[in-house]
Automatic annotation (TrEMBL):
It is found in: Cell membrane; Membrane. Belongs to the SecY/SEC61-alpha family. SUPFAM superfamilies: Preprotein translocase SecY subunit. Gene3D superfamilies: SecY subunit domain. This is Protein translocase subunit SecY. Keywords: Cell membrane, Membrane, Protein transport, Translocation, Transmembrane, Transmembrane helix, Transport. PANTHER family: SECY/SEC61-ALPHA FAMILY MEMBER. InterPro entries: SecY, SecY/SEC61-alpha, SecY_CS, SecY_dom_sf. Its main location: membrane. It comes from the Bacteria.
Length: 448
């Protein structure tokens, strides 16, 4: 029975997809926008010697710079106009969400509905430009300090003009990606920002696979280790899908109400609480914070202060301090972001206004405390899950030096974005089917 129902639903989906003209337009727009993004990752910034840059970056690609380059879709290694990718926008968004939690003025803006959301988005754009300008200037200075052992510099003509043009180019690239992501969200399918990061990671996958197989061909890695890595990747993907779909459903009841001769309400519902409410934000932000000192040290090419070199050594792949700080950052941002996206007090008030209550729990403050208790326990499990998934590839890379960084945060992003995009497509198909039923019912009513 279940298999027959699934086949019928799939056949209806394929039939609806062939007739869903609006969905096809959205899919084509999303594909075109992502192609534009990928083309931009190959347009270099002016004034950089690509050969010297490739040699210098190859010496640091095995560390966290290589990890950041995966998020940037290879744009950082090629030092293109999208080298910063969308990371300044993500950092600005998280900072604004932090401000809405600690600033009364920002919290009031958040409660003003659509108008307040527009103002917060505008402030986020200003913050993106500011952060991109700071990071762009740091990259420009770092590029001027990059050189080979022969003394050949990565910058053809260093100076103030190069720094200004580099900052303008990188800020313009980030702002364009921010606009492109918003266009994908409005006119395409899924979250545009997530899809941009997703496409960059997926584009690096074939090269990572080829590099791993090449190590097996030359004998640097045994066939058993390669098979183990492939099986482990499939197992981690299945584990991520299972946990991301896991929910704790809190039962909610609504009392019966008598109005005239009719009885309303009396039904049972549930409040779904995800096991991982924070999503992929905690590992992204934790890794970006850890990248700052290491990136500065990498760009200084060993000419920085001694304490910076010491920090770089301690924060290398597989080092205990790096993994400890990574886990601490993931746990912290799990609780912080969960508190931002879900407010137990507001949820309890909304349930009380609509007459809903959790069985055995008094409405109001007691309900809020119960939801906070349940959510805290779920967040502990979710933080442990994120920490395990993100630390596992760190251990593998440090043990076998595998150039296969398609793990941890990358897998989380790819799997989560894929699931969200499929859900968006299904919702569009469902809306199209409802529109078709409404049109048929109207035509039938007119004929009568």
């Amino acid at each position: 029975m279940a298999s027959a129902a699934e086949q019928m639903a799939s056949s209806m989906s394929f039939g609806a997809f062939s007739k869903a003209t609006e969905l096809k337009k959205r899919l084509w727009f999303t594909l075109f926008a992502l192609i534009v993004y990928r083309i931009g990752t190959y347009i270099p910034i002016p004034g950089v010697d690509p050969n010297v840059l490739a040699d210098v970056f190859a010496q640091n690609s095995g560390g966290v710079l290589g990890m950041f380059d995966v998020f940037a879709g290879g744009a950082l290694g090629r030092m293109t106009i999208f080298a910063l990718n969308i990371m300044p926008y993500i950092s600005a968004s998280i900072i604004m969400q932090l401000m809405t939690s600690i600033s009364p003025q920002m919290a009031q803006l958040k409660k003003e509905g659509e108008q307040g959301r527009k103002k917060i988005n505008q402030y986020t754009r200003y913050g993106t430009v500011f952060l991109a300008a700071l990071q762009g200037y740091g990259i420009a200075v770092g590029l001027e300090g990059m050189s080979l052992s022969s003394g050949q510099s990565a910058v053809i003509d260093p100076g103030l003009y190069f720094r200004i043009t580099t900052v303008i180019t990188l800020v313009g690239g980030t702002v364009f990606l921010m606009w492109l992501g918003e266009q994908i969200t409005a006119r395409g399918v899924g979250n545009g920002i997530s899809l941009i990061i997703f496409s960059g990671i997926v584009a690096a996958l074939p090269g990572a696979l080829v590099g791993t197989l090449e190590l097996g061909r030359t004998g640097a890695l045994s066939t058993l280790i390669i098979l183990f890595l492939l099986i482990l990747s499939v197992a981690v993907i299945a584990f991520i899908v299972f946990v991301e779909r896991a929910q704790r459903r809190v039962l909610v009841q609504y009392p019966k109400r008598q109005r005239g001769n009719k009885t309303y309400g009396g039904q049972n519902s549930h409040l779904p609480l995800k096991l991982n409410t924070a999503g992929v934000i905690p590992p992204i932000f934790a890794s970006s914070l850890l990248l700052m000192p290491i990136t500065v040290a990498g760009f200084s090419a060993g000419s920085g202060p001694e304490w910076l070199t010491t920090i770089t050594t301690l924060l290398g792949h597989g080092q205990p301090l790096y993994m400890l700080l990574y886990v601490v950052g993931i746990v912290f941002f799990c609780f912080f972001y969960t508190a931002v996206v879900f407010n137990p007090d507001d949820t309890a008030d909304n349930l009380k206004k609509h007459g809903g209550f959790v069985p055995g729990i008094r409405p109001g403050k007691r309900t809020s405390e119960y939801l906070d208790y349940v959510l805290t326990r779920l967040t502990v499990v979710g933080a442990a899950y994120l920490s395990l998934v993100c630390i596992l590839p760190e251990i593998l890379v440090s043990q076998w030096s595998v150039p296969f960084y398609f793990g941890g945060t990358s897998l989380l992003i790819v799997v989560s974005v894929t699931m969200d995009t499929v859900a968006q497509i299904q919702s569009h198909l469902l809306a199209h089917q409802y529109e078709g039923l409404i049109k048929k019912s109207k035509l039938g009513g007119r004929r009568k």
